[in-house]
Amino acid sequence: MKVRVRAFARFREIFGSEQVIDLPDGAGLDVLLKRFAERREDGRAALFDGEGRLLSHVVLMHNRRRVGDAAVSGTALADGDEVAVFPPVAGG
Question: Where would you find the membrane-spanning parts of this chain (predicted)?
Fold first, then answer.
């Protein structure tokens, strides 16, 4: 299956604005994020801590819905899905 990943702000500088990643059927969001991170030398450090856990400041959207940290490993993907990766949002 093919899943589109869109990166924004700081993550766009690291990964580029958009990538399509091939995954085996039944793969989840956790598998996608690991494959996405592996595409860049500094990708793993941008998304994961030293123990392989997603950094708490990474904001994820799956098909335009926010995915909480606890739901990452349980989020199933399907062909044609879209995942967006954002840094923390701040402003004033």
Answer: none
